[in-house]
Amino acid sequence: MINIKQLTNNDITQSTPTKSVQVVFPDKTIDVTYYKMVPVHSFTKMGYCCEPKGIGYPIFLDFSGNNSIDSRYFLVGKTGMFEFQDEIWKNINESEEEYTASITCYAVWVPQDIKFTLEYSYEE
Fold this sequence. Notes:
Layout: E1 2-8, E2 18-24, E3 29-37, E4 45-50, E5 58-62, E6 73-75, E7 81-84, E8 87-89, E9 99-101, E10 107-111, E11 116-123
Antiparallel strand pairs: 1-11, 2-3, 3-10, 4-7, 4-11, 5-6, 5-10, 8-9
């Protein structure tokens, strides 16, 4: 069964894990507190939307399950949205066989003071 879950900035509590990260912008470097949004399960499909002031702030995805922020950050572009899901592909130069490119994510770190909606789907 595939389930869908939604988290927003309203789900952040005092017990939500945080970490300070230096974010480099073209004109400055600032320390930003990030919140770890911990889903119930690992997931392979996710969508993130933020308010306009969050555009340009990276989000960090935990692909290893070690509960840390590492170098796997993704910049939120001018639309304020980021998403990923399984993709089916084939190399038509070699065969007609189809492959599925899939990644598993365990958590998303989002910047403090940015309104957001995070939706993800997972299997039980």
